[in-house]
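BUG: 3D viewer hangs when loading the predicted structure for this chain

Environment: internal workstation, default settings.
Expected: structure renders.
Actual: progress bar stalls at 90%.

Input used:
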Amino acid sequence: MAFRVILIENECSIHLKLNNLLIDKGDGEIWIPLEDISMIVLDNLKINLTVRLLSTLAEYNIGVIFCNMEHLPIGFYSSYDNYSRISKNIGFQIEKDTVFYDSFWKIIVYYKILNQKQVLRSLKKVGADDKLQQFLEEITVGDKTNREAHAAKVYFNTLMGTTFSRGNEDILLNSGLDYGYSIIRSYLARLCVGYGLNSQLGIHHKNEFNRFNLIDDLMEPIRPFVDLYAYRILDNEKYFKSEHRRQLVNILNHIIIYMDKKMFLANMLEEYVIQYSAFLSGRREKVIFPQVCDYLGEEDDY
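C-alpha cells produced before the viewer hung:
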C-alpha cells in the first residue's frame, strides 16, 4: 500500500528510473520507489519534470499537487478512471435517486457539525455548544434549511471572532485552511479514482464545471480535522511558513481511532471511500464517519 506523501520545495529535476522517482537537486540524487508514493506536492515553480513521468505516475495512481507563487495548491493531477470496473461503479452512482442522496447528505451535514462542535470543545472555545446542538437537531433530509451554512457561521465566529471571514486572504488561518483542505481534497480524489468512483457525480454538489463534486461532498466531515490542526500550529504565528506547509502535508500521517482501530488518517480516508463505494452498491448498510474526538494527532502527541 502506498503511504508516502512527498513534498518538494527546492528547485530540482524529477525523473523516472527503474520504477523509482529520482529527485536530482544537483548535489545528489534521492530515489523513492513509486509503489511507496501516494501523492506528490510540488511547491517550487522551477521544478522540471517530463510527460513520461506524469504518465507513469498516473499508472501508479499517484496524485500530484501543484502550488503557485504564494505556495498554495492551485492544481491537481491524477489518473483518469483506471479502475477495472469503473462502468459498473458509475452505474451505481447514476441509478441512485434524489431521496437516496438527500438522505445521505443529511448524515454528512450532521457529522460535519458534530465535528465542528468537537473542535470547539477541544480548543476550549465556549459559547456555541447549545447553538450547534440545535442545528444538529434541526437538519432535514437534503438540509433544505441550510443548517450547514448557519452552523459554519457560528462555528468560525466562535473559533476566530466575529470579524473572521473565510474569504479574507490577509487572515493567516485561511492560508492554513486552504492548504490543508487541498491536501485532503487531492488525497480523496486519488482514492475515489482508485476505487472506481466518478468524482464529478456528487451527493449534494452538482456544479457542472466542478470535476470534484463527489470529493467536495465526502470531505465535508473531514474539514474540522484540518481546522483543529491548522489552528493549533498557526495560533500566535505571524507568517505562513515552509514548516507550516510541511506540517499540514504530514496530517495524512496523523493517528485516529476509526472503527475501533488506531490508524493513520490516510488509511482512515481510504477505508471511508471503500465504505462509500460499498454503500452505493448495496454491500454495506451505512458509512462510518470519523470523529474529531477520536483524533489523536501525531504519534508524539499522545
